[in-house]
Amino acid sequence: MTAERLKELRGQLDDINIELLDLITKRAEIVAEIGKVKAKIGTKRFDPVRESQMLEELVSRNNGPFSDDTIRHLFKQIFKASLDLQKTDQQKELLV
Amino acid sequence: MTAERLKELRGQLDDINIELLDLITKRAEIVAEIGKVKAKIGTKRFDPVRESQMLEELVSRNNGPFSDDTIRHLFKQIFKASLDLQKTDQQKELLV
Which residues are in the Chorismate mutase domain (chains A, B) (predicted)? Predict the structure, then answer.
């Protein structure tokens, strides 16, 4: 019974991992598109005010179990990864 | 047009952020339940082999734009946060 339950819970965890991967990937595509729009307007890609607003919105919706600091930390990593991706793209463009 | 598009894309990003928060929260609940089952069986909560398998499963499904290393890094942070949560719970129990 317990071993079965463990297997079931692990299956649920695997499904959530894949959903997270899909969402993070989709998020990166949107960030890339925002970057293109910003390039047209001529504004900088990294906007610390907007990042701060997104983090505060997330924290305001956080009902635990994670602390607000943990939520900030995890999302900052996700935000940074998407921005770093664009840096690489820009560098590639410069090299062509 | 461009400003409107930016607003639209930002709205999409906000929605994805909330979905990510919900999934990470749901994930933490499942990890907590796995911890309880493991406590019954008497096995350790942190299983490096299982963590490695989950990471490799994610990397095998990763079709970019993130590098495999970035996916490993982001998910290790998510995994660690869930485990840290349980440590705090255990410490609380010891203090009662």
Answer: 1-90
Residue B20: which of B84, B86, B75 has the closest Cα? B75
Per the CB < 8 A criterion, the answer to whether B65 and A32 are in contact is yes
Give the tens place of pLDDT for each residue, B16-34. Answer: 999 999 999 999 999 999 9
Query: B21 and A61 in contact by Cβ < 8 A?
Result: yes
State phi, psi for B33 to the nearest 5 degrees.
-70, -40
Q: Could you say which of A18, A71, A74 has the minimum Cβ distance to residue B61?
A: A18
CATH number at residue A52: 1.20.59.10
What is the domain extent for residue A71? 2-95
**Which of B:73-92 have CB within 8 Å of A?**
73-75, 77-78, 81, 84-85
ipTM for this model: 0.90
Counting the structural domains of chain B, the total is 1
Q: Which of A58, A62, A72, A76 to mutate to test the interface with B (most CBs of B within 10 A)?
A: A58
